[in-house]
Design a protein that fits this description.
The chain is α+β, with helices and mostly antiparallel strands. The chain has three domains: 210 residues, Bira Bifunctional Protein, Domain 2 (BirA Bifunctional Protein, domain 2, 2-Layer Sandwich); 110 residues; 90 residues, 3-Layer(aba) Sandwich (Rossmann fold), CATH 3.40.50. Helix content is 41%, strand content 18%. An eight-stranded mixed β-sheet has the order 1-5-6-11-10-9-7-8. A five-stranded mixed β-sheet has the order 13-12-14-15-16. It has a three-stranded antiparallel β-sheet with strand order 2-4-3. A hairpin with a 5-residue loop joins strand 15 and strand 16. Helix 1 runs antiparallel to helix 7, helix 8 packs antiparallel against helix 13 and helix 9 runs antiparallel to helix 10. The longest helix has 20 residues. The protein is globular, with a radius of gyration of 28 Å.
């Protein structure tokens, strides 16, 4: 009995139309990456396990897909390891490689491994699939494409300015209005933890605060209390739960709140720099927001933190994000290498454009013209024209079989091919082609030069 055709949960097949739409987004992002001076690299689909493990925290480690060693992988496992039934001890014995969880850690590995070949600051972009053993849901998959750009080897804040402009340029090109570029700074969060006397609980503090839009003020306060943050400390940061106003007004409130924090003041200074730069070079489509609750889950951010939210009329979470990290390559032994990077959420951007009907109608077009097959002699006549059209970069094809006319025309209609050419014996004798517009029904006899000119 044949097995049922299926794919693993959290993965997808893509139809020709879906691939065309995805390629439209990828091409838009890629063109802007290149316009902003980023260079492409690629890293392997899988890495050595020790490259990935321990870099994303306990939760991240659990979501890494591990690859079994080839051959008789159980031979190296001793009886003692078997008897403990401890998967954490067992896994390294049978798996030395893993699918990459993101593009950032492999990029850090790449920089360290190729540091003598790289000109710093190094601006790279990378568009590849990554894999996570996560629970699939809307906009979240186990295999998905990341579109990342990073600059490493510079601590200049002009890089953050460029990334804000890069986000704006991409969303402007995609005609996606109402996108919010949320901005915060890890130094602001450190300053808040400092002024309430909870610096030793910075991670617990920021993780809880980052959930404000999901669980609300009371939920955040409860989580902070559960993590050992005192009621008095929570009371002292009450103003941040009701931060209102524009960017400048929020900066003023922060200056008052963080007046006694040196690290907090550094964060404010960096935010002001970015605000002044963007005020001098206004964004086209996106809006820059200051969100003091923004922390994101990755603990290696040390400066600016970005999160991109979809337009308010779309029920979708983050469609991009990133931030400044001061020592990412330090995990592989290369110290004091500051960097900043961002990522575009391709799958979520796709869903947003689909919901808002923002994909251009023309992007799913492939073949411009198809030639009806009337038989071997006519097919040869048609193929010479097909070849001439393709030489001019015009997508053309011949229906492969001399099937009934109705079947061939139905095929062209279902494929949304805009033009059909009919060339039988009379057309061959006159050295012309009957070109039919499938939308209007208009039909004209043209010679080969006129046929090519129609599509050039």
């Amino acid at each position: 009995m044949a097995s049922k055709a299926s794919i693993p949960k959290g993965t997808r097949d893509f139809s020709p139309a879906e691939v065309s739409k995805r390629n439209y987004i990828i091409k838009t992002i890629q063109e802007n990456f290149q316009k902003f001076g980023f260079q492409p690299i690629e890293t392997p689909t899988f890495e050595n396990s020790d490259t990935l493990m321990g870099k994303y925290g306990d939760e991240g480690d659990r979501l890494i897909f591990k690859i079994l060693n080839s051959g008789d992988f159980l031979k190296k496992v001793g009886e003692n390891t078997f008897s403990t039934k401890d998967s954490l001890k067992f896994a390294p014995k049978i798996s030395e490689k893993a699918l990459k969880y993101d593009l950032t850690v492999p990029f850090a590995r790449y920089v360290v491994q190729h540091q003598n070949e790289i000109d710093f600051p190094f601006k790279r972009y990378q568009i590849q699939n990554v894999y996570r053993a996560d629970r699939p849901q809307k906009g979240r998959f186990r295999e998905f494409t990341q579109c990342d750009a990073d600059v490493i080897g510079s601590d200049s804040l002009w890089q953050e300015v460029e990334f804000i402009q890069l986000y704006d340029a991409v969303f402007s090109n995609l005609k996606l209005e109402g996108v919010h570029i949320k901005l915060n700074n890890r130094k602001i969060l450190s300053g808040l933890a400092e002024v309430i006397g909870e610096s030793d609980k910075l991670i617990d503090f920021t993780v809880a605060l980052d959930k404000l839009d999901k669980i609300g003020e009371e939920g955040v306060k409860k989580e902070m209390l559960d993590k050992g943050i005192s009621e008095n400390a929570i009371e002292n940061i009450q103003p941040i739960f009701n931060f209102k106003g524009d960017f400048s007004e929020k900066i003023t409130l922060l200056e008052s709140l963080l007046s006694n924090s040196e690290v907090g003041q550094k964060g404010i200074k960096e935010l002001k720099f970015l605000q002044n730069a963007i005020d001098a070079m206004p964004l086209q489509t996106a809006k820059l927001d200051l969100d003091v609750t923004l922390a994101r889950g990755l603990n290696y951010y040390t400066g600016a933190i970005f999160e991109i939210s979809a337009p308010e009329n779309v029920n979708m979470g983050s469609i991009g994000g990133g931030g400044r990290y001061d020592d990412l390559t330090g995990i592989f032994g290369l110290k004091n290498m500051s960097g900043v990077g961002i990522s575009f959420g391709l799958d979520r951007i796709y869903l947003v454009l689909e919901e808002l009907d923002l994909f251009p109608e023309t992007i799913t077009e492939n073949t411009k013209v198809i030639f009806i097959n009337f038989g071997e002699t006519e097919a040869m006549y048609a193929m010479k024209a097909v070849r001439a059209l393709r030489a001019k970069n015009i997508a053309a094809e011949l229906y492969p079989d001399a099937a009934k006319m109705k079947k061939q025309m139905t095929y062209a209609d279902k494929r949304n091919i805009p033009y059909v050419v009919l060339a039988g014996g009379n057309e061959m004798n006159a050295e012309v082609y009957n070109l039919k517009n499938m939308k209007t029904g208009e039909q004209n006899a043209v010679n080969l030069e006129e046929l090519i000119a129609k599509f050039v």
